[in-house]
Design goal:
Helix content is 49%, strand content 10%. It is of the alpha+beta class. The protein folds into 4 domains: 154 residues, Glutaredoxin (3-Layer(aba) Sandwich); 331 residues, Glycosyltransferase, CATH 1.50.10; 65 residues, no CATH class; 77 residues.
């Protein structure tokens, strides 16, 4: 029986034809394990995961291994991107037991879903000190059959230990000047001044930390914060982690210099980085930041947009290298000989110099990842543009990486915010239109009649998994950005629906702490709760930011109070681990700054003065400022209530900490008031 054939996850569908008798995560799988009295093999991965594909090919496609699994286990396959709650709970157990984690994640469970043995990738035979997967299976089978009591004791202890873990929540008070200054000092200590970024290899794009640094500079004028943000962004943009031909960022760099990436391209990284570079341009006017923001936005729309208007999750790292082998980076890397074949001797020599392609190579088998090691100004821009266009055409004829085309609500919310703002900043209405289309898909397909979100969809069909906290928070964030950019209050209304669920179903009413799953969600061995950032902002602090923005737009006191209480965890963790709570620090900056509330009233869409003031407000750098735009008395935005034209002209009203400035019709005065 092929139980994976009808699922929406491309990752699960990749395993549908395995000889392993896979089950999706569902109660019937554990009931079957209980009926047969066998343990459960839980295998967690995702579509763009290189080692997930390797283990699948080596073990799950092997008939003998599959026969053993089918005889002695119930095998459950989970897409971590569809079920981040399942992934989080068992990854916490893996990390606690082994000190490390990763994907594929391999966990053995009792029929009560209690874990007792852990690992990640296992090779088919012993290798490099790792046991072979068949050895592991045989050992687990023997333990289950011969030492059942011991297995039960181990599982029970692990569950008790997980249940006893507590979040360092602090006193429930938001951080102040002292905590944010300590966080900045901590980041300075971990900063790599030669290469940009924080810490050593592998290096991940520190999107949320950069947002904090930009907001801190905007509020305090701290030049060191801006320098760390700008230098890191330049190093990444010039490195191999950035696609120098097609735009967009890879997942991370395997080295400290941003040269060799792990080539998968994720929606969330590119949405976050598109917004980061747009905000850097807003703060500095950097032409590099402008180019990268727009190229990344064009990558999102050109490569990840689905037929329904949403955005696909990822592009794989691997592709056919032209010989039938699937290898990492094959689509992106170049040898000098390949440049000569594409461009001819003279232009190939120039391209090699411009993009840092060498005979020795910077990657594998003499191939190089394209970079920008030198300043572009020393090259003929027109000639380089022609070379880039020709190389892109040649690359386009190569076998393309696979695409995970499921639509994840949270990541689409991040894309909506990024595209709306980037389109507004750079006068690209097509990008704003793309943001509106994605938001419309989220409403039509992901939102039910009670304003509850589903996590994923594919081909316009909603998946079965409930949205988690980051879905509600990031989609609300996207809707709030869209409301500010478009002046359409319906997006503010939808954000309010989602945030009401955050208050009612994800928040501990006693402490104000937040959970990653709703109170009425499926019960796991532990209710996941993580306030720290990973590849995306933590659901906890993303919710705090959306609640704060919504409160500034509407004056909703319960939402502001909830945001302030939620930021207590940032006060506790920010000075200690600032790299891992960057979005929480960014939200705290907005709280300290107000955030400022800007109401723009004009005579309608045809009013050029109103449009100028609106754009000026959007370009202001005041942390977390919210913008309402409409006609006098516009009912869609509470901030517009009682606002009138001034002398018959469009006007801007700026309020902060319950105090409002005098209205102005002067764009320069508004710019000064918002730090633009």
């Amino acid at each position: 029986m092929n139980r994976l054939a009808g699922v929406t996850s491309p990752y699960l569908l990749q395993h549908a034809d395995n000889p392993v008798d896979w089950w999706p995560w569902e109660p019937d799988a554990f009931e079957e394990a209980r009926r047969r009295d066998v343990p459960v093999l839980l295998s967690v991965g995702y579509s763009a995961c290189h080692w997930c594909h390797v283990m699948a090919h080596e073990s799950f496609e092997d008939q003998a291994t599959a026969d053993f699994l089918n005889a002695h286990f119930v095998s459950v396959k989970v897409d971590r991107e569809e079920r981040p709650d399942v992934d989080a709970v068992y990854m916490e157990a893996v990390q606690a037991a082994t000190g490390q984690g990763g994907w594929p994640m391999t966990v053995f469970l009792t029929p009560d879903a209690e874990p007792f043995y852990f690992g990640t990738y296992f090779p088919p035979a012993p290798r490099h000190g790792m046991p072979g997967f068949r050895q592991v299976l045989e050992g687990v089978r023997q333990a289950w059959e011969q030492r059942r009591e011991e297995v039960g004791e181990v599982a029970g202890k692990i569950v008790r230990d997980l249940a006893g873990r507590e979040i360092s929540y602090g006193d429930g008070q938001a951080p102040g000047e002292q905590e944010l200054a300590q966080a900045l000092l901590g980041l300075t200590r971990e900063y790599d001044p030669q290469r940009g970024g924080f810490g050593g290899a592998p290096k991940f794009p520190p999107s949320m930390v950069i947002e904090f640094l930009l907001r801190h500079h905007a509020r305090t004028g701290a030049e060191g914060a801006l320098q760390m943000a700008a230098d890191t962004c330049e190093r990444m943009a010039r490195g191999g982690i950035y696609d120098q031909l097609g735009g967009g960022f890879a997942r991370y760099s395997v080295d400290r210099d941003w040269i060799v990436p792990h080539f998968e391209k994720m929606l969330y990284d590119n949405a976050l980085l598109c917004r980061v570079y747009a905000h850097l341009w807003r703060a500095t006017g950097s032409e590099l930041a402008r180019r990268v923001a727009l190229e990344t936005a064009d990558f999102l729309v050109g490569e990840l947009r689905t037929a329904e208007g949403g955005f696909a999750s990822a592009l794989d790292a691997d592709s056919d290298d032209g010989t039938g082998r699937h290898t990492e980076g094959a689509y992106y890397v170049w040898t000098p000989q390949q440049l000569r074949e594409a461009l001819g001797e003279e232009d190939a020599a120039l391209a090699a110099q411009y993009f840092g392609v060498t005979e020795e190579g910077t990657f594998e088998e003499g191939a190089s990842v394209l970079q920008l090691p030198q300043q572009e100004g020393v090259f003929d821009a027109g000639r380089i543009a022609g070379i880039r266009e020709r190389l892109l055409a040649v690359r386009g004829a190569r076998p393309a990486p696979g695409r995970d085309d499921k639509v994840v609500a949270a990541w689409n919310g991040l894309a909506v915010a990024a595209l709306a703002e980037t389109g507004a900043y750079f006068d690209r209405p097509d990008l704003v239109d793309a943001a509106v289309a994605a938001a419309d898909l989220l409403v039509r397909v992901h939102l039910d009649d009670q304003a509850r979100l589903v996590r994923t969809s594919r081909d316009g069909r909603a998946g079965a998994n409930a949205g988690v906290l980051e879905d509600y928070a990031d989609v609300a964030e996207g809707f709030l950005a869209l409301a500010s950019v478009t002046g359409e209050g319906v997006w503010l209304e939808f954000a309010g629906f989602l945030l009401d669920h955050v208050l009612a179903r994800f928040t501990d009413p006693a402490s104000g702490a937040l959970y990653d799953t709703a109170a009425d969600a499926e019960r796991l061995i532990r209710r996941p709760q993580d306030p720290t950032d990973n590849a995306t902002p933590a659901g906890w602090t993303a919710a705090a930011g959306a609640l704060l923005g919504y409160a500034a737009q509407t004056g909703a006191e319960p939402h502001r109070t909830a945001a302030e209480r939620a930021l207590g965890v940032v006060k506790a963790l920010g000075p200690r681990v600032p790299r891992f709570i960057g979005w929480g620090l960014a939200v705290a900056e907005a709280l300290l700054d107000g955030p400022r509330e800007v109401a723009i009233v004009g005579a309608g869409d045809a009013d050029p003065d109103g449009r100028v003031l609106h754009r000026t407000a959007l370009l202001g750098t005041a942390p977390g400022a919210v913008v309402a735009y409409g006609v006098p008395g516009g009912e869609e935005f509470p901030l517009l209530a009682g606002r009138t034209l001034v002398g018959g002209r469009a006007a801007a009203y700026v309020c902060r900490h319950f105090t409002c400035d005098a209205p102005t019709s002067d764009a320069d005065a508004l710019r000064a008031a918002l730090g633009g």
